[in-house]
Each structure stands twice: as structure tokens, then as C-alpha cells.
Design a protein that fits this description.
This protein is α+β, with helices and mostly antiparallel strands. 21% of the residues lie in helices and 31% in strands. The protein contains 13 helices and 34 strands. The strands form 6 sheets. Strands 2, 4, 5, 7, 8, 9, 10, 11, 23, 24 and 25 form an 11-stranded mixed β-sheet that branches. A 7-stranded antiparallel β-sheet has the order 26-27-31-30-29-32-34, with no helix packed on it. It has a 6-stranded antiparallel β-sheet with strand order 12-22-13-18-15-16.
Length: 652
Amino acid sequence: MRSFTGWAVGLTAALLAGSAPALAQATAPSFANIFADHAVLQRDRPITVWGTAAPGETVTVRLAERSVTAVAGRDGKWRAVLPAMKAGGPYTLSVGGAAGTPAQQLSDVLVGDVFLCGGQSNMEFQIRHATGLEVVPSSNDAQLRFVTIPDTSVPAPAADLPARSEWKAVSPETVGDASAVCYFMARSLRSTEQVPMGFIASEWGGTRIESWISAPSLGKLPGFADRLATVATFGSNPAAAVAGEGARREKLWETIDPAARKERPFRDAAFDDRSWATLPADDGQLPAADRAGLEGVVWLRTTVDLTAEQAAAAQRIQLGPIGKFDETYINGRYVGGGSVDWVWRNYGVSGGTLRAGRNVIAIRVVGANGRMAFTNTANRMIGLKDGGTVALNGPWHYRIGSPIRDAQVAPAPWEVPNSLTTLYNGMIAPLSGYGLKLAAWYQGESNAGEAGAYRGLLTTLMADWRRTFGQSDLPFFVVQLTAFGKPQTVPTDSGWAALRQAQAEAVAADANAGLAVTLDVGDRFDIHPAQKKVVGERLARLARVIAYRQPGLRSGPEATEAMRQGSDIVVRFRNVSGGLQRYGGASAIGFERCAGTTCSFVDGTVQGDAVVLPGANRPEVTTIRYAWSDAPFVNLFDGADLPAAPFTLPVR
């Protein structure tokens, strides 16, 4: 999988500052960066293309024998719509302007079906890490292409991707880089549809659903308006937003840590830390004696000498991952703070923060479970505009502060992976209007435990993307969370099960959506199970029925009702192919009868398209649940080898 450095967040101001002048200075007509050699365009619908040219210039766009004209606006942007085309190619796609203006030509462009695949790390998970690698040697397919959108987080919708996309035809040499789920879905569909296909992978590991929804749509949901306003401030005035975030966090620390006010001088350049201990230079971790039982604050300080040129060219400070919370100061000025232990700390440095000569970096870290994670010296540096760096190789002095358990410091709303709207802005908005056949979504691990909000967020995301791409009926397929975590020996509440239910409810309320159940291909020891081939093929099954209008069932067994019948309760299912099957035993397992919040396991007997729960009908039983666990063990399938979907149902 692509590694997460996160410094796109720290470069937000630079990205914004660089985008507008580029449009104004463009003279030769060009396409937006999603259009490139080997791209695939959507068949059987008008083909929208766009790009930049000199303001007011008339441009001509050609694809095969078709051509249209458009006029660039005052901002240098143009947009044109070519007539719908049947599947075919390869073609040349070109744009040219007035006589003497160089034209841009893109070669080997196909017209077929285009899929957008989004989400977090399980959608990002590449073929090279998946099972089913026997497909790689035979993966030559010039009619199947893919492109991966670079990780980009910005506080306002970007007009374009940061660089020209690299569309690739699938081959043994290229397929290892592809999203495994998206590839296996497309590969399966290619075997039946026989048209060119391309998939756009726009995903980022560890991210929350709120990052992928536009600000106008997210702002309609309760609880987001203030934080979205802060993101907007970060876009227009990053220094002011960062200073405000520092003040917010400091105020919070004063409620968490009784020593916070007294320790304020620790961040100042003039503070004398010569009495503090020194971190070992080899790994940067606290000595074992200080790690024992550590729960709480650790202060770190170091110095770095810069020339006047280096101080003027400094753009960011890079510290590597820090576990779990941090606030980082340079010469007493807050520059950033993180809240996720595996995320690299890369904070932008505004002008005047660093100076020629001696500079002091101070960090308040919150360690947990005897672990104050701080990466080795190779990962700590000042980044310069020209790509050069100045190492922060110590010595680092430290002082152990207040013992604090379970500190919670809410992240800044632009902080990946917990940001609001910034990934939509950088990785979805620049694709706006690109023709699609369907969208697939694999995300939810980072929102587990928040099922109450997730249903509305997923419904909002589906509507938001359909609006972005101008397709109100765009088929949208959701991969339900698989099994991960500690298996249960007794029934219990489960944040993962509740989120699966939220996913199912959002999909059930949408006529153009489908749900891929994946309980049987999880890995309770690994949040990134490698069985992506099965997941992709289940998405393809949904696509054939919903997107391609072929006959068949869109899903596997789904419970419709739980009814009292004598001393038993009968659970009836729909969408069953070939009758219900139970693997590995005489009984169907994973069912629970619940009296209020008290639940107990009960085995089931398969009878056709129903499961009978013998003796379960007691007066106090109000609910039947199935597979209600983070990592449930289940054995109920149908004749098509599709697992029964988890559920909770009232007893009638």
C-alpha cells in the first residue's frame, strides 16, 4: 500500500498559492490532469472534457471524427461536451486553439465503462499484497486500464489534480500497483461485458467518511458548521487558523493537565533545559526505567542552527509518527499538533517562525501504555523549498510531566485522517463531471463505533458524489465491514456490527445502491484481510444486476422478519439462491435472542429459506440478532456461496 506521509496537509498553503497563477499564465490549451494517454472515457453518454487556455480563447476539442468548440472564461478555464459514443478505440483526444497555438494530443484513448473506487486502506490495498496472485502472469489486458489519484488534502475544492495522471494498461508489470478490490471487480466484469474498462482509484488509508464529502453537503448535517468554517479559514489564512488551533488545544490542556500553565515556558526558546535528561540517540525512545508504567505527558526539546537562507526557505518540519498526541512549537510558536499515533507529523512553517542561528523545537507528547513513540533521527528534519532538508539529529532533551490516562485531544478539522471535506476537495472535486458507470466504496473502519451518525453520512456521500458527477442515478456499491478483532464467547455490544447495520440501512433505502457482504473473508488478526478477489467479484455481481440490468439477485441472503411460532422463533430470508446452507455443522450458529439489552446465543435449524430457533420464543424476547460481533464466526450461506447478511430484527 502507498505509505502515508501526510505532508500534503502541511503544504496546503503552497498548493493553493500555486494553483491560481498557473491558470492565469496558461497560454497553450491543455486538458485537465485526469485526461492523459491511455485514459478511458465513459461510453453511451455525452463526454465532458475540460481544461485551461488563454482567457477568452476559443478551443477545439477532437475525439475520433467528432469535434466541438468552447471558449475559455476569464479565469482561463474551458469545458466542452462531446457527443456520446459507443465503446471503441483507441482514439486520439486533442485540444487546440487559435492558429499558431500548440495543440495537446492524448493518444491511445478508449471509450468504454469507467468505475470510481473510493475509501480507506482496504480499497487502497494493492494487488501485490493480495491473495489470488495466480492472476498476475495472465493479467495482460490492453482494454483494462487504471489510474490512482495521488493523496491530496486541501481546504477548498481544487480545480485540478496536482500533476498529469498516469493511466496504465493492466499487465503483469503494472497490475501490482492497482487497487485489488477495484481490479478484481473490473476483471470480473470484463469477462462478461466485453467492452473497454477503466477504474479510477481515489482512496487514502485510515481516513474517515467525513473527509470525502463536500463542505456544502456535510454542512447540512448537524455538528459540522463550525469546524467547516475553521477549514475554510485554514484555506484563506493558514497562519491564523493554526494559531487559533494552538490556542484551542492549549485551553483544552489546561482542563486536562493541572501542570499545563506552569509548563508553558517549556516551549520558549529562552527556557534553560540543561537539567533535563537526554534521549538515547539510537532509537529516540525513553530509557526503559522511564517507560515503565508511563501514562501521560513527556516534553521534548532540541535545537537546530540555520543559515539565513535556510531559515527563509523552510517550508515544513517533519517528525515522523508520534504516539499518540502532540503539540509542536518552534521558538515558542505553535506550528501543529497530531492526534493519531501512526500518522507522520509534518507541519507547515509560516514565514518568520524560523530564523538565522539557533532555533528551538519543543514538543509536548502524550505517551500511553509505557510507550512514548518517537521515530529515529532519520525521520526528523526541516524541509526546504528546493526539496533539501536540515536534519534534527539532536540531542533531544526530555522531561516527564503529569501522569494522565485516556487524554482526548480532538484533531484540527484539516488534519488527515480525521479531516472534514479536504479529501473530497483534493481527490474528488478535480474529477467533477468525468463520466462514470458506477462507484464503489470500501470504508468504515475509521468510523467504527459511530453507527448513529454513519448512516446519514453514507447517504450524504452517495448523494454528494452523484451530484458532483452529474449522475443522479449513478449505481453505488458499498463493501460492508468484514470480521476483525477479538471473537466473543458471550454476546456483547459491537461497534463494528452496529456500523455494518448502518451501512445496510443506508443501502437498503437507495434504489441504485448495493451492499457486498464480506463477513466470511475477514481476518480477526489483520484489519487488512488479503482475500480481495472475493470482495471484488461480489461487487461485480452487484454491478451486473444494478448497473448492467442483467437478471439475478443483487445480494445474498437477507433476513426479512423474525416471527413467533409456538415455542420457536422463525427467521425468514429473501434473495436466497439454491436454498440456505450451513457449513461445518448441523446447526446454523451466530444467532442471538435478546430480552432488552440481555442477549444469549441460540443455534438455528435450516428449513428451506428460513432458520428456526428452537425454544427461543419466550415472552421477554424482543429482538433477534445475527453475527453481532466485531469478528463473528458464521456458517450460514446460500447455494451461490454468499454469506447471510448480519442483522438485528424485532420479534413479531
